[in-house]
Design brief:
Distance between the termini: 56 Å
Strand content: 5-15%
Structural class: alpha/beta
Largest sheet: 5 strands, parallel
Radius of gyration: 23 Å
Helix content: 55-70%
Number of helices: 14
Number of strands: 5
């Protein structure tokens, strides 16, 4: 991204060139400053800052800063580097955290908003009809399934979470038209999850899968939320993939909460009061 800005500078108006040079001088600072301060630092007007972003092919300043932050973070040192035997604790901290941040930013930039909207609509519609919502996962993905149940339960959306293969198959057998199954899998090749997804789909339930692109589960479920993070223990992928799945669940839960709307507010308020009364009794 920075190379493209450098190559484009000669073709820009002088005022826009000053904005471009400001980006190149300190991209991290540019990505976090408000338009007023950016304009002051470049000695241009606020509309000029926006024009520069659009001349680079972005919708505006917000879109430009979002992509800039992702590009800069993905290019920081230690990303995708294994931990060395002589690394100090500070090096390990930076490598692990930066790798996770880079994975999240890559997901954000590549995520399909259409698929997320379809998944949120399906879950919200299932809830409104009083039908069953179930979350399936195995191993680390089973932890994500349990977390998903907890998050949606807080929204007043009751569901079932299962990390046992036999239970998943039996539970999927009870699903029918209008129900919804959300399957979480890092590899997308777990036999028990594939069986449960196939049974749920054949019974008429909507199947949503959070998994890697190109996997069997990605091709067999109706709605695919791509979560691509390759395996490799030197890149801490078991933990990063689980965090990515939890992040996607957070996005889904927030989208569903918005679809439920104002009726959610008294539920959350009553839940908070009940928990407070229990905690301080």
């Amino acid at each position: 991204m920075l190379d493209r800005i450098t190559a484009s500078l000669p073709s820009l108006a002088p005022a826009e060139q000053r904005v471009g040079k400001l980006v190149l001088t300190d991209p991290r600072t540019f990505a976090r400053l408000p338009v007023r301060e950016l304009a002051e630092r470049a000695h241009v007007s606020k509309p000029t800052v926006v024009r520069f972003c659009r001349s680079m092919g972005y919708d505006g300043l917000a879109d430009f800063k979002l992509k800039l932050a992702g590009s800069v973070s993905e290019g920081v040192p230690f990303i995708h580097r294994s931990v060395d035997a002589d690394d100090k604790t500070g090096d390990v901290l930076v490598k692990v955290v930066d790798n996770a941040v880079a994975a999240f930013l890559q997901y954000r930039n590549a995520a399909s908003t259409v698929a997320i909207e379809r998944a949120a609509d399906a879950i919200a519609d299932t809830w409104k009809k009083g039908k069953r919502i179930e979350f399936y996962g195995v191993g680390n993905s089973g932890i994500v399934a349990q977390d998903a149940q907890h998050k949606f339960f807080r929204l007043g959306v009751t569901s079932i979470a299962s990390s046992d293969g036999h239970m998943q198959v039996m539970s999927a057998t009870l699903l029918g038209l209008g129900d919804c199954a959300v399957i979480v899998s890092n590899s997308g090749r777990t036999r028990d999850l594939m069986d449960a997804a196939d049974i749920a789909r054949r019974n008429g339930a909507t199947t949503i899968v959070i998994t890697a692109s190109g996997s069997p589960l990605a091709s067999t479920c109706q709605i695919h939320l791509a979560a691509d993070h390759p395996e490799g223990y030197d890149r801490y992928s078991p933990m990063v993939s689980r965090l990515m799945h939890l992040l996607i669940i957070d996005v889904l839960a927030t989208c569903v909460a918005l679809r439920i709307g104002s009726s959610l507010q008294p539920i959350l308020q009553q839940m908070k009061e009940n928990l407070r009364a229990k905690r301080y009794a």
